[in-house]
Design goal:
Blueprint lengths: L1 E15 L6 H6 L6 E15 L3 E5 L6 H9 L6 E6 L3 E4 L12 H11 L4 H15 L14 H13 L5 E5 L7 H16 L3 E6 L2 H7 L2 E6 L2 E6 L1 H19 L9 E9 L15 E9 L6 E9 L4 E8 L11 E8 L7 E11 L2 E16 L22
Parallel strand pairs: 3-7, 3-8, 5-6, 6-7
Antiparallel strand pairs: 1-2, 1-4, 8-9, 10-11, 11-14, 12-13, 12-15, 15-16
Length: 393
Amino acid sequence: MEAIVVDNISKVFKLHENPVHSVKERMLSMGRSKYREFVALEPMSLSISTGTTLGILGHNGSGKSTLLKVISGILKPTTGQIRLRGRLASLLELGAGFHPELSGRENVYINAAFLGISRKEIEKRFDDIVEFSELAEFIDEPVKHYSSGMYVRLGFAVAVNLDPDVLLVDEVLAVGDEVFQRKCLDRVRQFQQEGRTIVVVTHAADVVRQVCQRAIVLDHGKLVADGAPGDAIRIFREHLHGTLEEAAPKATNTGPLRITDVRTHHPRSAERKYLEPGEPLTIEVSYETDRTVESPTLSISILSLEGQAVYAVDLDLPSFGIHHLNGSGTITLPFTSVPLLDGRYTLSTRLIDRHDADLRVARDGRDEFEVLNPGAARGVAALTLGTVTGRSG
């Protein structure tokens, strides 16, 4: 049974090229206002079975939030139609309907009424809402005094206590403190056990891996992948990396010492581009030099896409038997194991002569490799787990 059917929907926005700002300007430009069309969603179709948790992945501007708003009815599609089965709750803009001058208690009732819940029904759920939000001591305070985190707590608490058949979630699993995030994820898992349908929009691959049975990827409004979470994450990263690569500034490499290429490969490179955790990786750094590099040092840093260094090392090449560099050549670094989990990692490479300040070159962010974890472990490091034992009684 299908809980959500997306039937050939698209969304096109009309953007005014010369927006008017006064009544006079509006009258003078009547009938002559120019606009251009922005295609937020290309025509697409998909169906989501009852009880399925679907992840929607995409970079900023890919159309993922627009798709969720069309499904929820906030936006009307330009073409096509949406068919839903059951009560729907949207966690899109938490607290968007709250009135700042009213108390948290009053806003709970107003927000619930806005979502079609009767006062009698919300009275039965009110204590559960307050308990989940952990805002009992502030519930009668005007929400204008609430922090953004308190807004999120109350908005989430209202939405998840409406007993929905279909739950739409837009990035809210990434807001609030870590304890509250875990609480949100626990509630999502409870909904899964109860057989509810969930659609999660995110750019966090870990969330998709943790909670989704299926995932789709959007890129500039187009549906580019639909399948298992691991496959969708890989395709998402390929498209995201392409976007970052286009935007990255080109490095200059014109001095007397030059890095001409950096290559990565592993034993199964012919079958797949990505590593699995714990597999070996070889990095090859090719160089050219116009002068002899008498005291060469090669530095390699491995960074996450967010720029966090996960590994860095400075290699004094003479201690490895490479006493000087002349002409052109390649330095090979064989890593016997890469104990990293999911991610696309970039390389920062530096080659210098410790005794000649003119002989130094850096190459940052142009080279990368990917690790794809086939299991359910999360985080950065891939720890090796031995035999698990236990006793009962």
